[in-house]
Amino acid sequence: MIDFVRGQVAHMETEYIVVDVQGIGYRVFCPNPYAFAAKGSEPVTVYTHHSVREDAILLYGFATREEQKLFRRLIDVTGIGPRVALGILAGGTPEKVVSAIQQENVTFLTKLPGIGKKTAQRMILDLKDRLDGFVAPSLGGLFDNNVAAEAELDGGGWKEAREGLEALGYTEAELDKAWMHLKEDLQPGEPVDVLMKRALKVLYRG
Question: Which pTM was predicted?
Fold first, then answer.
């Protein structure tokens, strides 16, 4: 079991990063690969989930232990595979996802990529009593109908995407600049994870 890798990011795509660990390149699939770009040439620590299948050996990577732990909880839910779990983490921070599950907020969960109503209900049923180890601040106000309406008006899911990017350490000025680029060709109903990846790509280019 590979629990983490530490090295320099040698290559980056929209779905994964390649981490150079003493001359060996590990391809690691991530929720938001461009989140690691902020480190520049510094070594990064990527917490991983090592998946072994009959047809593939894959690494899924995360910036924090909380993301790693939540990913492992999510893939235990019927109907949620690794790709969907990555989309969930790309569409919302661990704290928000955990809070939504604990509050049985189906509306928020069904806005996450790949999650329909039945899967959201299954997430709540399977995970609500298994997330006590997560520190989830009181975020109830983030999930009410008024805030959801504001998010729809403010460029679809940009409000939620912006909050996720702020959690990664980006400043308001940087995010305002990224939004100026994104809004020019914004598609109605564009998913939060897609917006985050596009914004991170803009931020990475500077």
Answer: 0.68
